[in-house]
Amino acid sequence: MRVVSLVPSLTEAVATTAPGLLVGVTDWCTHPPGLTAARIGGTKNPDVAAVLALRPDLVVANEEENRADDLAALRSAGTEVLVTEVRTLDQAFTELARVLAACGLPRPRWLDEAEAAWAAASPPPAPRRAVVPVWRRPWMVLGRDTFAGDLLARLGVENVYAGHAERYPRVPLDELNAAGAELVVLPDEPYRFTADDGPEAFPGLPAALVDGRYLTWYGPSLVRAPAALRAALR
After folding, report:
1. Alpha-carbon span 142 to 127, nearest angstrom
2. What percent of the chain is modeled with pLDDT above 70?
């Protein structure tokens, strides 16, 4: 098969399982290292003509990361497009199995290892309330119904804004600091929070700097994610 991936997580999943199957990936697809597939633009602005020129048998996408208009344009040109929805860990495992099967691949060992790693991940007895910014200028945080929020909940971190009407609400900084959180979790993507850019905005709150790939990617990174996130959240 000839497969184009418009999602970094799915790129890593397919390329790890069957090197060489992918003929096109986005500019944001950084894993696994050494990808040789053609670059076809970003997740939000793929070059549809470039994708079609690669003559893919299948394009894999995600309802949150990719635009409906781009996917419709690919379908109207006769290309098969598989669109995933991933808002919980269980959903991630189901969708990964579906994508790999659609690519004609057997279930990989890493998927079993990821499920086992998370099944063994027990949260501490007392959860901690946290705000989880994903952007600043303006400040945006995790809200309801997010994959990253589900992972954190499984590790004993209660998202203060998990009940918000929006999935990624914009919240003024003074409100974030008054939300009653015990912790601020700062991933390095999509905004690259660092020790010098982020913690200073939350005086008096301990800050956990986490690898965004372990918090927001679903794929082979899920094998190591429980241990890596737990260490960062201590």
Report:
1. 17
2. 100
